[in-house]
């Protein structure tokens, strides 16, 4: 793709997100989401390979369905309440529909099946955009409609996402799929705290964006598509391998690294709200995620020479 076209598409992507984040009318928010979706389709399908075409199609179908559901829920609300204001979604059925639509748009379990497939079918840099930038617009909508969304649905979505993100990541060897399940688990934590304390949700989102950016940049630099590739990272750059190890441990949520802070605050807040069983289940599911982060860390940095890697070095 020529740099000019790529620049235009990326600026459309940014514009779509900004329109959604700054609008108060549902129609404008929907236009922003559609612009976002349409801008990233050509980026996913640049490879001209059946796998990337399939990923682009899957992405388009899920996002179009989610956007249609969002528009439908806002129309029901406008029909019953006479307002198109995003912050005044006071009709219960439209709120339930909206939370399910946003779950589909973000890739929260049980509507998560498209995310690993799409990330696996696109390049590392495209997967990075989908896992980070594309989460901003739906998260801003959750933030704006927070007071009205049914908290029980959000808690259940958060719990299932965290558990499924942990379970499904266990048997993956592809780094992009591991990052997809990691993303699902982290979004589960955000959905869990969203209806209780939205400022912790924002902090969790910022920390997640920083850590995912760091890890994806490391993966792009070392061209690591599988766990086997990460094992030879130290031959090109030992420093990068150490940074990757720290980022992975931070994503897993180990103290004293940054990734531990949002998890700690979320668990504390859940216990304050008398949701101790929920907090326990979330902590348990975090252990599942931690296992595959640790496995990746182990192959990346803890198996240094003299080692038994039966593979060619990068050089």
UniProtKB/TrEMBL annotation:
It comes from the Eukaryota. The chain crosses the membrane at residues 59-76, 96-115, 152-171, 178-196, 202-221, 233-255, 275-294. One of its GO terms (biological process) is mitochondrial electron transport, NADH to ubiquinone. The keyword Disulfide bond does not apply. It is a multi-pass membrane protein. Core subunit of the mitochondrial membrane respiratory chain NADH dehydrogenase (Complex I) which catalyzes electron transfer from NADH through the respiratory chain, using ubiquinone as an electron acceptor. Essential for the catalytic activity and assembly of complex I. Belongs to the complex I subunit 2 family. This is NADH-ubiquinone oxidoreductase chain 2. The lineage of its organism: Eukaryota, Metazoa, Chordata, Craniata, Vertebrata.
